[in-house]
Design a protein that fits this description.
Low-confidence stretches: none
Bound molecules: zinc ion
Number of helices: 1
Mean pLDDT: 79
CATH class: Mainly Beta
Order of helices and strands: HEEEEE
Largest sheet: 3 strands, antiparallel
Length: about 80
């Protein structure tokens, strides 16, 4: 599982937005953490990083309850086409 790269996303957005009205836009991103349930002791671990080992029993077997997601909450930009 790869960690979501917020900076890479913003970089591609700025490339895509170049020379459009969205150029210079600012946005809010929210990255949810991963939730995994240990297959041995069934305790749930929440982490921003991919889970390495169960914090309770040290087991390495997990069921992923919720994956890491990147949520685009808002994009704000000013229309500068008339502001010379
Ligand atoms: Zn465990």
């Amino acid at each position: 599982m790869h960690r979501v790269n917020e900076e890479a996303f913003k970089q591609s957005f700025s490339w895509a937005a170049a020379d459009t009205e969205a150029q210079g836009a600012s946005m809010e991103l929210r990255i949810t953490s991963i939730r995994a349930r240990c297959q041995v002791c069934h305790s749930e671990t929440e982490s921003d990083d991919p889970v390495v080992a169960c914090g309770r029993c040290g087991a390495l077997s997990f069921d992923v309850v919720q994956g890491s997601e990147m949520i685009l909450e808002s994009i704000e930009y000013e229309n500068t086409s008339c502001a010379q």
